[in-house]
Amino acid sequence: MAIFNTLGEKPWLESTSGVGFEQTEEDYRPGKTALKFFLAVVSVVFFLFTITFLSRTQFADFQALAGEPWLPLENSNQLMINTGVILFASILLQLSVSLTKLSTNIRLSLFCAALVASLLFIFGQWQVWQLLNNNGYYVNSNPANSFFYLLTGMHALHLIGGLFAMFRMLYVLYRSKNSLKFERALQLATTYWHYLFFVWLALFFLLTSSTETFKTIAEICGF
């Protein structure tokens, strides 16, 4: 489309003047700094919830959701599929950032495919929540259930917030045709998606662990 024709350009490589390059870097730096600060805050929040979760696993009323054949997350195929989907979204975004020699339409297609994959991840998580709920694993029936809904829900909310920002990026590009601004935002979004992927890996490990694994972790952490 004509409005996306300039997306692949790199104005900072043009030999116009040093001033233009400095302005580009300074325009990009505040967003990058804000993202680093936001990720630091989110990391602290997830860390505190994780510590609380590990501490709670040592109470007698805690029943892990995996570790025995009859438990719902012992077969974690759906969660494995969801993990592959969010990894795919992260890879697509990285390709859209890195492969600058590709045509504009291809890079935009990669970006939009990442959006679709992220939506599929959220839908897959919702399917797991429905499975648990339909089998009687309600949010208030067991501390492990509560933490599963809490942690996966928090992760999904952060992903939804990122999706909102990415849709807004497309809207701003459509209205302003500011390809350089879109490029900067795309780099930040890609970093954010990589971060959410690694957070999900940690949550996946914790939420599908057995009671014995929690005991071992608790001993190592000194609970």
Automatic annotation (TrEMBL):
Keywords: Membrane, Transmembrane, Transmembrane helix. It is a multi-pass membrane protein. It comes from the Bacteria. The keyword Coiled coil does not apply. Residues 14-212 form the Heme-copper oxidase subunit III family profile domain. The chain crosses the membrane at residues 37-59, 79-96, 108-128, 148-174, 186-207. InterPro entries: Cyt_c/ubiquinol_Oxase_su3, Cyt_c_oxidase-like_su3, Cyt_c_oxidase_su3-like_sf, Cyt_c_oxidase_su3_a-hlx. It is found in: Cell membrane; Membrane. Belongs to the cytochrome c oxidase subunit 3 family. This is Cytochrome c oxidase subunit 3. It comes from Thalassotalea nanhaiensis.
